[in-house]
Amino acid sequence: VANPIDDRIEAITQLLRRGGRGERDLQELAGLAADVPTAELRYLVQSIPGPHAAILFRVLPKGTALAVFEDLSAGEQADLIAALRSTEIADIIEGLDPDDRAQLFDQLPASVADRLMVGLGVDERRMTTAVLGYPRDSIGRYMSPEFVTIQQSATVGEALQRVMARIDEAETIYLLPVVDGSRRLQGVVGLRRLLATDRGALVGTVMREATTALAVAPREEAARRFLAAKLLAMPIVDDEDRVVGILTYDDAVDIIDEEDAEDVARQAGSERFAGSYLAAPIWRVMRSRIVWLLVLAVSAILTVQVLELFESRLEQVVVLALFIPLLTGTGGNTGNQAATTVTRALAVGEVRVRDLPKVVWRELRIGFLLGLVLGAIGFVIASFVYGPPIGAVIGLTLVSICTMAAVVGGVMPIVAKKVGADPAVFSNPFISTFSDATGLVIYFSIAALVLNLS
Amino acid sequence: VANPIDDRIEAITQLLRRGGRGERDLQELAGLAADVPTAELRYLVQSIPGPHAAILFRVLPKGTALAVFEDLSAGEQADLIAALRSTEIADIIEGLDPDDRAQLFDQLPASVADRLMVGLGVDERRMTTAVLGYPRDSIGRYMSPEFVTIQQSATVGEALQRVMARIDEAETIYLLPVVDGSRRLQGVVGLRRLLATDRGALVGTVMREATTALAVAPREEAARRFLAAKLLAMPIVDDEDRVVGILTYDDAVDIIDEEDAEDVARQAGSERFAGSYLAAPIWRVMRSRIVWLLVLAVSAILTVQVLELFESRLEQVVVLALFIPLLTGTGGNTGNQAATTVTRALAVGEVRVRDLPKVVWRELRIGFLLGLVLGAIGFVIASFVYGPPIGAVIGLTLVSICTMAAVVGGVMPIVAKKVGADPAVFSNPFISTFSDATGLVIYFSIAALVLNLS
After folding, report:
1. What is the distance in angstroms between the Cα of B376 and the nearest Cα belonging to chain A?
2. Which of A48, B48, B160, B191 has its CA 20 to 30 A from that of A23?
3. What's the gap in Å between the CA of A338 and the closest CA on chain B?
4. Beta bridge partners of B233
5. How far is Cα B68 from Cα B47, in angstroms, rounded to an integer?
6. Which residue among B164, B195, B358 places its CB closest to the CB of A164?
């Protein structure tokens, strides 16, 4: 099936690769890019090398360029900025919202950020500085300082007038923070509620309780609360309850996207790297993986040492070696299932740290039942091929390993949370390595017992 | 640190466990529950047995009860419904939005759903039926049929009048679908835009292009597009472009939450189970894990057979067995890192199926570099302890296994997507098992070569 958009994307990639930089090449490029949707342009910019992306970027109409730029992650934006000329950069920077600009500045070398800051208008600079004043990873970095508050003592009619006066500059007008005389947050009111209410009523009588966050609060916590409550916007306050900004839902979605990507990477034992997968240099992707891979490989030396302890038993019954990958693999899988379930339940608040005893008791029973099923099958198959004594060793080991792995997998994320670490730190590979070593000890102990080895 | 809310939750749990059902017990319960926030009440309902949840639910004020109920997943709602009396149920059902009601009815036994449907008012019943008319897992099931459209040919003033007339019933008024005379969708316009525009202007001149979805489209696809574009609402159309409903952002967030939970579970080789972790019966959690665990254990028999092929080599050099868990574990970790990165890149659209050759080439180089680092370290350590020949075997095997595993891990999700399967189907445990078997073949081939085994 021919897809005209795919063809255009292919043609653009080819043209850029040919390296044509003449006036006619650029015109052809502009023509090709003209009908490509923003989402596809973003994909293109993400998947081609930086210098190519910069050339493509130059031929886009200004509005389209800004829309594409806004959709990139801060890391990708920084890469693109590095490839653009300063005059081109100034336009883009001026067009960004203050909170997005702060994100970008964080990713740029300080000297570049300072230079760009100087180029901004007074208002834009003031607002960007305000956002940059909060700690990295705090929600203050993501809020918009362009908000409209209304007075508790105002009438609904006055409030609507105020909203209409600020309609062009405010980040959102659909949810409005309500404040008292000293600018302290008292509640919020939706625009819909205002519109549906008699104009003479007082705002204080129609507002409802606000879900808020401190500007210095961790971004993930605030964004999760935001999305869990399905808010349109959330007032951000200082420690005296004064409104300092507003968080809108697009910012909350961005934060959760990034946090999820981090968690997913960490579960697989890697770090996130800045930029998109296809455009990032090989060494950057490699660096994101090597540290954990090394840590895990070094911990896996434990399994070598455990096996060395049992080397004489292995020499007596070499057939025991055949089952090592099957047994450790099954233990790892069981542990990972439990860890994944509990990590998720912790993240969405279904499980709390105080539920640890309940989780142990549940996983103990679940792991034992899983082990019974697998152990019975393992006993039958292994007995048939290698005789009942080996069958008994395999069956009993599966029951023990599954029980142990399910409990360890269920407990680890809660322990991590209890000591204040990210539950995803005890990632799946970590649990696998741990259950490998423990599982081997169980295996050879049972084998020694059943087969009467010394 | 004493937390008054935690104390109350503990007291509620104790009271329910004691089994007191008298008038005074219920009054005490109502008093304890009075100041507990909705989110904590939801956690309580999720973490205690169904009959206890039903008792707690009864003593909550009607508004609070509905808020808690709305925050539960459809599966949890169905569990709770099963424990409540019919008169109590009727109130809850009537209070739900038509789309949420349809989700719940899906989880209930057909006879119960039918009975509840009869109890609804004519309008509520009509709208619920409309939503239920679309296929399961289609976005039509999640849209709201309570929307306001405006005519392209209307003036902004007329449009605002129409919005004001429907302000109480519509699901949202912040984004409005614009239609022509035959009710076909022409675009959308935000309420803010309308308010900021001269009342005499025509709606057709201020509307913008709509992001839409067909009512029969898969829910995940539509919801991902929704959140990627950070929309407030999205008109849902039939195949003649007529508006049949509107999707709001809370519905999109719910869908993505569920899909993510499914993906996360599948990555770890389990299925999602209905209900919350702590309240679900043990057998339900076990059932969600046993199938994949069995499939994986049976595939792992492959590793036993591979090792059996090399049994004579193992008997000659038993020390080779010591490294099996380390080598297979490292291969599994490398493969999972690659698979996780590529699966994520596919999900967010950074990588397309046509990028397969690029991915292979990238992972080949990344895997080789990772293997070089690990192989060098492995060579040094193993040479030192077991002599240079064993060191050489371990080093060379690590290089080969890392390269192979990174490529396999990177390719699998793309192949899955190409054949129309969920990329998460080739889950991490599956890749581990595959790379275990391949890795062992590599290991013993290199060992035979270097150590001159027969």
Report:
1. 12
2. A48
3. 9
4. B248
5. 13
6. B195
